[in-house]
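re: ur question from yesterday

yeah so i grabbed the chain u mentioned. its 192 aa long if i counted rite. heres the sequnce exactly as i have it in my notes:
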Amino acid sequence: MFGAKRNPAGRPDAELVVWAVAGDRGAFGELVRRHGSAVRALLRRMGAAPSMADDIAQDAFIIAFQKVGTLQDGAAFLPWVKQTAARLYVRRWRKERRYDLMAETPEPESDAASSHHGSVSARIDLEQAMKALTPAQRLCVSLCYGAELSHAEAAEALNVPLGTVKSHVKRGLDKLRAELSAAPQPGSQTYG
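ran it thru and got these structure tokens back, copy pasting raw so excuse formatting
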């Protein structure tokens, strides 16, 4: 259908989406190559094991391939596929009933304190800081900030009250700020 002269590498997402809608599988393949790691990283931050993140990301891209013609703005491909992946993860999460967001969960022990003992210059990144959150906080923060769902959309996806999502997001963000501000900054020196 399309000649070998059409090269999707380096093209903007919006153009690749137009080509994919027209049936160019290579263009869609470029979108998957370009954004696959970001989708898997979001799923891992939400709490998915690496193999589950791979499976759900693959399912999200299959759905995206089937529905790419419904995407209004091709430049919004990445947020759109992230939302698809996040919703798939939430469905699986709800089905497996791993955590009960309505129950108060104990705060986990922070790894930050123990990691500072080994090396004062140890740097905590976002992935490490996310591990300090409870599973419910991690899921809600990831849905609202990683998958760009509104609090109401996250509450609907999780089938919990809006206040519960807002509470988990606020506590999670507070904890992330504390974890990240406690981390030594690159190039900073301590004098004693």
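noticed a couple things. Residues 108-124 have pLDDT under 50 and may be disordered. also Residues 8-98 form a domain with the Rna Polymerase Sigma Factor; Chain: A fold (CATH 1.10.1740.10).
anyway ttyl
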